Amino acid sequence: MYDVGAIRKSLEEANLSRGQIVAIILTALVAGLDGYDVQSIALVAPAISHAWAIPKHTLGLVLASSLIGMAGGSLGLSPFADVLGRRPMVQVALVLLTLGSLFSGLSHVVWQLAASRVVTGLGIGVMVSLTTVLAAEFVNARRRGLAVAAITTGLPIGGVIAGLVAASFLKSQGWTWVFYGGAILGAVLLALVTVGLPESPVFLMDRAPPRALERLNRVLRRLGREPVAALPPPAKPSAARTSYRALFTRETAPTTIRFVVVYLLNVTATYFLLSWMPQMIADAGFHPSTASLVTAVSSLVSLPAGFVFGAFAARVGPTRLASGAMLGFAAGVAAFGLVPGVLPALLAAACVCGFFLSGATAVFYASMAASFPPLSRVSGLGLVTGIGRLFSGLGPYTAGLMFSAGLGRSGVSLVFAGMAALGGLLLMTGQRRLLPRQNQVGA
């Protein structure tokens, strides 16, 4: 048997085993479901608006309800993954996603749909933090940036699937089946995760929960690694404590605050675009199914971006890449508002947005995963994404008010493009101080 130090070295330096690859694939599938659920409400929004005859400011509230749930999941539920474990919280999140999607399809009035999207958002909020951490903790250092990028690429893959499903169902079965499809996918993934996803070995080594040694050795065997003879001595209570207070020490507070501000600016622009793009395309005179296809194509174009940016992260630096990608995304949002209302121009601008958004997401999440210590890693990502989504929910709602007040596609898009640009500039100017010390994921 090896000691824990040798296991850490093995996980860091050895080639990926079949068990690790299976864990990464399952995590990527879960991230894909996140992408599906995030896009689904935006894709059916034009059909719901027409079927229920609801004004745009009310539609904006429905679109924002998912983000309210995401904030609750990130802030309120994500920290439990640092205490109870990664695997059980993945299962909890999948249950919430499945039930939320099911009840969304069964809704008959606005408040039922909004409440169902809050439940769905709770699951998404947990999952966004967890998938990135799982990707970082199941692979070695050499492939970590690429693995995190692959997981974040699961989001646009889910968006592609959602767009294709919506384009088909909106013409045949109706908008409710877009949500039923998400519920079916969630139930299938819950079964696969329960059978095939082990607990994170990094969590078991650092947290040392009950029966940690037995559970760790069982996981290590599944990952093709040798078992350990004993766990290291328990960490001091202050070191092992997982709380938001640990994210605001003298050393960690600057990094935490800057991540929160940058993410808030970028995600507000992101969810404005994701929520309102189909409706803006429909307002330009196109059928809702055409709007769904444009969204699917833009998500498809964005797929290589995560891998491209992730591959260069180690050479160029994730912070510099993320800031550049955010500025590119801001330019794409501005272009989407300024181009003529013809399909080729709208599609081209949407593809630019998708490409740079995917790249920015991949490397920005990789930076966060590397910056927070292991026992606060999910809490840190949960705090950043939770605060961002708590206030970014105002983005779709505020956009709805702007549209209702008579502001057109160009004016609203320029406002949110400015937010994304400010986030990129803030990240770029503070990159030397942002990550004072990179924490090793297995450390």
Identify the notable features of this structure and list them briefly.
443 residues, mainly alpha, Growth Hormone, Chain: A, 18 helices, globular, disordered C terminus
Q: How is this structure best summarized?
A:
This protein is an all-alpha fold. It has 18 helices and no strands. It has a single domain, classed as Growth Hormone, Chain: A.
Give the helices and strands as they follow along the chain. HHHHHHHHHHHHHHHHHH
How far is the first residue's CA from the last residue's CA?
20 Å
Number of helices: 18
> For the record, what CATH class applies?
Mainly Alpha
Strand element count = 0
Instruction: Tell the overall outline.
Output: globular
Report the CATH topology name.
Growth Hormone, Chain: A
Structural class: mainly alpha
Q: What is the CATH architecture descriptor?
A: Up-down Bundle
Multimeric status of the protein: single chain
Q: Strand fraction band?
A: under 5%
Q: What is the CA-atom radius of gyration, in angstroms?
A: 21 Å
Could you give me the name of the CATH homologous superfamily?
MFS general substrate transporter like domains
Largest sheet: none
Provide the low-confidence segments as ranges. Answer: 237-242, 434-443
Architecture overview:
The protein is 79% helix and 0% strand. By secondary structure, it is mostly helical. The chain has one domain (4-434): MFS general substrate transporter like domains (Growth Hormone, Chain: A), CATH 1.20.1250.20. It starts with a helix and ends in a 9-residue tail after the last helix.
